[in-house]
Each structure stands twice: as structure tokens, then as C-alpha cells.
Amino acid sequence: MDIGVRIKKARLAAGISQVRLANLLGVTRSACSQWELSGGGTSPRGERLAEIARLLDISYEWLATGHSGGHDDSEVQNIFMTGSDERSGQRLTAQQRELLALFDRLSTSAQAALLKLLSGMADKPSTPNAGDGGKKR
């Protein structure tokens, strides 16, 4: 799948029209249309591509290359569209999808720091909070 198809699929999944995306980016609808032409259109580069990824809440890596986090293009698109990873049979909750979307918008160094923090928190035994009856949340 080429970059134009990925832009279109992500735009449609986000529920954004070409006109709306163009307005958000400060370009013409015609420019967005050209980007989405499979094989024959122009492709946005660099900062514009990063801005599209941010607006559509998708990873820059996936938008630019079709690959992200060890998944191929079709797997990433399926997870993005359905919230489900067929390989594991698990469906992501709304909270998990939100967490992944936020994580994906972080810089690489911020992602590493967050993973380190979360790993440390997950390794600690839970301690009861006052008023929660000692239940782990």
C-alpha cells in the first residue's frame, strides 16, 4: 500500500473530509486529493507528513513506510481500524487505544522514559490506597 492510500485510509478512519484536512494543514483540497492518488499523485514530505500523522493520530513511521512496531502494513491498519490484534485474539479497550495513541505522539526519548517508569511501577507490589479496601486497580 502506498503513502497516498495510507493517508486516505487514516483520514477516513478519523472521520475527516479532504476539505477539513486541507483546512487544518493550510493547503488546498486539491493538494490533499493529489496526495491520495495511488501511484500517480504527489507525496507530502518531512514536516508536512509529520503534521498529517499528528492530525490523524497515527504514527509517522506507519504513514511514511507502512511499518510500525514489528507489524506489517496490513496488520497495523487492521489494529488501527478495529482495535483488535488478530494474532493474539485480543481486542483493545478504549483506554488502551487512547494510551497507545498518546504514546505514539511522544518523542522516542519520552517513550523510553515512560516505558522505564511503567516497568518500575508494574514490578512493585501494589500497596493499598486509603479507602479502596486494598483492591488493586
Automatic annotation (TrEMBL):
Protein name: Transcriptional regulator with XRE-family HTH domain
Organism (species): Methylohalomonas lacus
PROSITE patterns per record: HTH_CROC1
Pfam families: HTH_3
InterPro entries in UniProt: Cro/C1-type_HTH (IPR001387), Lambda_DNA-bd_dom_sf (IPR010982)
SMART domains per the UniProt record, alphabetical: HTH_XRE
One GO molecular-function entry: DNA binding
CDD domains: HTH_XRE
Superkingdom as given in the UniProt entry: Bacteria
Occurrences of domain HTH cro/C1-type (ranges): 7-63
